[in-house]
Amino acid sequence: MTNRPGGRSARVRAVVLEATYAELVRCGYLGMTVENVADRAGVHKTTVYRRWGTVDVLIADALDSSRDVEWPAPDTGSLEGDLIAIATEVVDVFTDPARSAVPEAVVTAALQSSRARQAKKDFYASRHAQAAVVVTRAIQRGELAADTDAVELIRFTCAPLYYRIFITGEPIDHAAAERAARAALVAARAGLLAAAPNA
Amino acid sequence: MTNRPGGRSARVRAVVLEATYAELVRCGYLGMTVENVADRAGVHKTTVYRRWGTVDVLIADALDSSRDVEWPAPDTGSLEGDLIAIATEVVDVFTDPARSAVPEAVVTAALQSSRARQAKKDFYASRHAQAAVVVTRAIQRGELAADTDAVELIRFTCAPLYYRIFITGEPIDHAAAERAARAALVAARAGLLAAAPNA
Q: DSSP letter at A196?
């Protein structure tokens, strides 16, 4: 077995990690087993045990591999447009049961496993850094003060939507996405999301 | 057995619901059993089965009873002060493991049970309505436009903190609380949190 990209090892990893997400969605973190992941992937369970060992490692590796997938930041020409596009994508994912199942299962797993929690944290840090490009571009265009904390503006854009989804259980729609993006932007323009806050 | 407030029935409910939270924290929603709740409460399991039936009903009743507890909204004299006080309480709860265990277990349970999800939704709706008093008072003092959605301002105050706690797994502190409160307020003052948005 080799670790050549595109080789047999990479193909095994791809099918096993796909099966990991499918099992996570089907039974949740506490119901998942390495055996069921191996069965679903059509891979011998010894292979999965030897390479990953536990369900925690499988989930962490699945999240790591998602992190590696390039996520193209929107480029609408204005920061407001870009932030609305980012918020709208959150709404589109979480109002589509086929797309929301994995992130919901991951948040649940992270509440039950410190390994999954770390992998989820790394995933969001990576995604935030990719999304923050829209803010650094806007700073270069002179749309926003140079000391704005780009990642903080992304967090504030997404937070009101995740709050409804995971905490209050209230509905979200595109109007909520626009509202979240505009509220975050007005806070940034007011200097409240500066990189070195006067705390 | 009667339903007199303060009677035997109320005392049984109090010990059983306390045991429900303790078991929820100890084993999570999927690990909880009616038997273990009864054992911990020192109540015969038949009593718990007859009155509540399932773990779901126990959790929902525990949340309902928390909802009934009066939560005194802050009254610092300014809306900014009140919103910072609300955000600071969120930080204080979630940076204290003894206080954060129950809400974390409830969010997890709600991801696994529709009954718990509804109870949690009702809980936050009730808490939001209580907290929104600080906004309606500020509107009466002329600090804010009358068409501000009071509950939406509370949501935007809390959301960036919950986003760090439950989604990104990033730390929170009092500076983050002040930032969240001030960002929400500046969005409200800009008319972005109006009750009837131009969506």
A: S
| pLDDT interval class at A155 (50, 70, 90) | very high
Residues 153-172 of B with CB under 8 A from A: 155-156, 158-160, 162-164, 166-170
Q: Cα dihedral sign for B162, B168, B172, B177?
A: negative
Chain A positions touching B97 (Cβ under 8 A) are: none
Among candidates A107, A178, A197 on the partner chain, residue whose Cβ is nearest the Cβ of B179 = A197
Q: Are A197 and B179 in contact (CB under 8 A)?
A: yes
Cβ-Cβ contacts under 8 Å, B158 against chain A:
163, 167
- pTM equals 0.90
Give yes or no: residues B60 and B98 share one domain. Answer: no
* Residue listed under structure tokens 């589109």: A92
Q: Give the one of B107, B182, B199 whose C-beta lies nearest to A167's C-beta.
A: B107
Q: Using an 8 Å Cβ cutoff, are B19 and B41 in contact?
A: yes
Q: List the domain range (segments joined by +) for residue A47.
A: 8-67
Q: Evaluate whether A134 touches A74 at the Cβ level (below 8 Å).
A: yes
Q: Which residues are CB-contacts of A61 (< 8 A; sequence separation ≥ 6)? A: A13, A17, A20, A52
Q: What is the CA radius of gyration of chain B?
A: 19
Query: Which of A40, A67, A94 represents a domain boundary (last residue)?
Result: A67
Which pLDDT band, with edges at 50, 70 and 90, does B1 fall under?
very low
